[in-house]
Amino acid sequence: MHRRHFPRALALVALVALVATGATAAAPGATAESPTPATTNLRATIDTILADTRLAGAQASVVVVDTSTGQTLYDRNGDRRLVPASNTKLLTSTAALELLGPGHRFSTDVRASGKRRAGLLSGNLYLRGGGDPTMLAADYDALAAQVAADGVRVVTGNLVADDTRYDRTRLGPDWTWDDEPYYYAAQVSALTVAPDTDYDAGTVIVHAAPADRAGAPPVVTTTPATGYVRVDNRAQTVSDGETSISIEREHGGNTVVVTGQIAVGDEPASDWVTVWEPTGYAADVFRAALHRHGIRVLGRTVLGQPTPERAHPVARHDSMSLGELMTPFLKLSNNGHAEVLTKEIGRVLSGSGTWTAGLTAISEYVADSGMDTGKLRQRDGSGLSRRNLIPATEFVDLLSAVRAEPWFATWYAALPIAGQPERFVGGTLRSRMAGTPAAGNVHAKTGSLTGVSGLSGYVTSADGRLLAFSILLNNYLTASVKSLEDQIAVALAGFREGGASSARVARPAVPETPRTPEGVECSWVKPITC
């Protein structure tokens, strides 16, 4: 077990600063023995919110800390281990920025083995994956263009898809089987395709458009266009009535079944569907791109073989930086990004692209940052596993500690921001807390599973103090308790201790948020999950 030294050191620095300025505060890391009237009122407000009947029989863990002093303003069951859902991404994302660095990039390259004569390659062409979760069909097309520009016209051997940077375990060990067809539980491979600029790697978007006449099946297409997915179209176009199209992939293969009905003249129905074995999906998209650029591969497609050291480079694509990737990752709570980063951490630090190696390294980092890893369990990178158990107080310790990291401003900006309507600014908080003191103020990670909700992050109080908070709610039976989280966050945004001795800090600066790459469009929008 690691010693929790960083928060104590941070609190000691804050205490020295307060003494130097003549301010007074409670012992760092502990609730004041005689709270001020404002703090007493805040606690009563949060207690009232948590007494809501929607939480009857449920579990609630809430901790609020003033990051400048280390003073605990509120603690309800802070040491209780609860399922955190996507709040788990706080651990994965901070560890990735520290261990890989904000400038880390994923590389996908094409190499050739065998003899070259004019445009003939007498050997294999290797597509080697580097784990990039942002590879689009357009990127594979650009790789194919580079191969053509290198002079290759005919490949006598095979197209080999090399995904050996990571292991072949495609799904998290605790993920439920009925999540497997849906985009938030995509299979993890070092070689994959994303269909859109949300970068939902390992998925294909299936569109069902009405036919011109009633009685005919809808017209089904995919983005990207691929023969890797087989469509079983059982749906029907109707003259009128409500559109009710269901699109779901059958377990164990790539047959997508389309059922239901769609009315003539209605807009197409679209859904994101995971593919079975994303390595083959990437190879299919790349092989089609080669064909478009006039390159014939005479052999078959082979999956999972390593690229020989002697193979010479032909083409290469580098991803955006990890610092830039934080925006789609955290704003949209992308589970696939979390799992790729977990395996990438393992690969870079120990040479093993596995969940076990990655989670070990993440655990070591967060322990050094002040979390007591003997009091929590992390089973995946995203929070999809229900065996993740993390107390709210441990989240707050991490949130307090990472403020000192050189990459903090990038990470803080990448967190969802309450009440900001742009998807890549507000993210999963874009429709929450609008018109309140929390709007444009709260930067926090959301979390949702059935019966599980969480919100952990930062809010600047009305008297200018940066508060770190964690709200974890488990085992409720109602549809949603997110309005209770919002009420707590709004109360914190309006909190004012009063008096000249209150410690004040400037709200962290937010760097410019990266936008969708020029020339790339995504006209469809799926519901945001968290």
UniProtKB/TrEMBL annotation:
One biological process term from GO is: peptidoglycan metabolic process
Span of the secretion signal?
1-25
Q: What keywords were assigned to this record?
A: Carboxypeptidase, Hydrolase, Protease, Signal
Q: Which Pfam families match?
A: Peptidase_S13 (PF02113)
Give the molecular function GO annotations: serine-type carboxypeptidase activity
Its family remark reads: Belongs to the peptidase S13 family.
NCBIfam families hit by this protein = PBP4
Q: What is this protein called?
A: D-alanyl-D-alanine carboxypeptidase/D-alanyl-D-alanine-endopeptidase
Native organism is: Micromonospora arida
Lineage in the entry?
A: Bacteria, Bacillati, Actinomycetota, Actinomycetes, Micromonosporales
